[in-house]
Amino acid sequence: MYQPSESSSTSASVDLTALAQNVAHVRRLAPRADVLAVVKANAYGHGAVEITRALQQLAVHRFGVATVDEGVELRRSGIQDAIVVLGATMPAQFPDLVAHWLTPVLYRTDLVSAFAAAVETDTAPYPIHIKVETGMGRLGVEPRELPELISRSELRGPLRLEGLMTHLADADNQDAGQTEEQLARFQLVLNQLQERRLAIPLIHVANSAGIIKYPTSLHSLVRPGIMLYGYHTLSNDTQAPELQPILTWKTTIAHVHTISRGSSVSYNRTFIASRPTRVAVLPVGYADGYNRLLSNRGQVLIGGQRVPVIGRVCMDMTMVDVTDVHGVQVGNEAILIGQQETERITAADLAAWQQTIPYEILCAIGSRVPRRYRPLISPADTAAQTN
Known about the structure:
The protein has about 375 residues and is α/β, with parallel strands linked by helices. It folds into 2 domains: about 30-230, TIM Barrel; about 245-375, Beta Barrel (Lyase, Ornithine Decarboxylase, Chain A, domain 1), CATH 2.40.37. The chain is built from 12 helices and 20 strands. The chain has helices at about 15-30, 40-45, 50-55, 70-75, 95-100, 110-120, 145-150, 175-195, 210-215, 345-355, 360-365, 380-385; strands at about 10-15, 35-40, 60-65, 80-85, 105, 125-130, 160-165, 200-205, 220, 245-250, 255-260, 265, 270, 275-280, 300, 305-310, 320, 335-340, 345, 370-375. The strands form 5 sheets. Strands 8-7-6-5-4-3-2-9 form an 8-stranded parallel beta sheet. A 5-stranded mixed beta sheet has the order 19-18-10-1-20.
């Protein structure tokens, strides 16, 4: 398989030491919970295999993916720890799921019997998790259906109920009403199970926003996702968590030229120069994940300054106005996400310009952008470097 050259003009670097700081923050907020790190969608664009291996070094040994294929990729890369498939699964996928010892989250009663049929009877009881619908309106067993489900014979035979979960729909909202209702519904379910003296090892509700904002959502397991990568979507009234964005996205100026007043840049003439304008051409575009919605709206960092995107973002190129930046030359670095001198642009900034969320920005960074990894540095190593 082709490996991108170290000289690639556009790349993303991932700081694994910053990842370690974010994991430590999760543990400070949820000290009595185990961590199921969500690495779905290629670890939110950061590289699932590399992030998972780094997390293993940080004593994280449970991982969440969205699809069977994502789980299989981790298994084939040598990841032997628990992998939970959090998304929708179909009976046709159950043989692959079992073959790679992936843990399903089942969300309908019929799936329990179908999955039991796919499990070899001579194997140890196969772990499953059950999702309860409390207000997300997506996947999940209704609370009234749960007593019948957990009494099924399959859960005393080929299957073992390892985990019970629900998913918070509105935990990042300033209004806590919906989330409090969901937590109350789930607690009623837990109370019923306690009355039946049914012990389930892993109870999990808290996503990133829940970990930060709702202590009552913390049970024996938490599911951090976006906060591992340095972001959150909580409203401004919430105290900002101590998170470090771990990804820097940069490119290299490919061409610089000057256009006269009245000249246009890029497709459809959406930018007309109002003055003689120095234009830098960046070899990155929407095929790399730099969204077309950033046309005439986004900014990048060059020479320690914010400069505006001008004209349409193309499939493979983006133009910026560097008229006010002294000494810009071909080969200079441009930062799309990250810090340059005292200025910083984050995925949250790109999200605001596109009226979306940081999740989408990070997940959209394309496969032709190589990821490079800055190694984990322990506190002892950091001290040695500064002495």
